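Revision sheet: structure tokens.
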Amino acid sequence: MSSRLDLLLFARRVVEQQAVTALRQIDGWIAEEKRREAERRRGESSRPPGPDWLIQHGLNRSNIDFVHVGDCWAAKKSGRCKPVSRAQALDALRQLVPACPHCRPDTELGLID
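Predicted:
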């Protein structure tokens, strides 16, 4: 027959073993998260810079709706933009393509103050 002390010592060994197993699992999760974070940072640092200017096409892709600054939030929401050079953005504005009212590329390009 086991004494109460033997049962308590056995219970302690079981709890200790479970704790060690749980800590190993958590350490594995931490290592995996550190790896993911490092990979995300590497991806961000190697990503090419975004365009300086964007042209937003209409739904039928044949007309131009707006000229945007490259980091405009409204352009990112539309999903119908293509990168263009400064000269192309200026040319579009001179041809009376509307400037985005949010990012004001006409001001950025020096067409209006």
